[in-house]
Amino acid sequence: MDKRRVLPVIGGYNFRDIGGYTSTDGRKIKWGKLFRTANMAYLSQADLLYLRERNVDTIVDFRTPIEVEKEPDRVPKNVVDLNIPAMDLDRTDSTADYAQLSREYKEKIPVI
């Protein structure tokens, strides 16, 4: 993995720069413009300063509202923090097996 990808954010799990990847139309994503992490609930003051210094202005949180309520994001001041759930149900504490999740997914996705 490119060493530029992993960012020195201690309180964020798997915090990485998405720069350098090629988009579907062949263009490259610019380094230092788009980041990803699993959770921002435990960012330190140093982490928040790091994000502020990189001019992060918008965060899109794909977690469910239940997950957000359990562990709210810590974000720099004046940053827009959007919650746009990627799933309609919280699966983090689910004991459902893969086959059950697959059946539920297929029931919700329309056939085109």
Please give a structural write-up.
This protein has helices at residues 45-53, 65-70, 98-108, and strands spanning 16-17, 35-36, 58-61, 80-83. The termini are far apart. The chain contains three helices and four strands. The longest helix has 11 residues, at 98-108. The strands form two sheets. Strands 1-2 form a two-stranded antiparallel sheet. Strands 3-4 form a two-stranded parallel ribbon.
Map the helices and strands.
Elements: E1 16-17, E2 35-36, H1 45-53, E3 58-61, H2 65-70, E4 80-83, H3 98-108
Parallel strand pairs: 3-4
Antiparallel strand pairs: 1-2
Quick rundown:
The protein contains 3 helices and 4 strands; from the N terminus they run ββαβαβα. The chain has helices at about 45-55, 65-70, 100-110, and strands at about 15, 35, 60, 80-85. A two-stranded antiparallel sheet has the order 1-2. A two-stranded parallel ribbon has the order 3-4.
Bin the helical content: 10-25%
How large is the share of residues in beta strands? 5-15%
Structural class: alpha+beta
Count of helical regions: 3
User: Roughly how many Å apart are the termini?
Assistant: 37 Å
Output the helix-strand order. EEHEHEH
Strand order of the largest sheet: 1-2
Largest sheet: 2 strands, antiparallel
Q: Please state the CA-atom Rg, rounded to the nearest Å.
A: 17 Å
Q: Taking all residues together, what is the mean pLDDT?
A: 84
Low-confidence stretches: none
Shape: globular
β-strand number? 4
Question: What brief labels describe this structure?
Answer:
112 residues, alpha+beta, two-stranded antiparallel sheet, two-stranded parallel ribbon, 11% strand
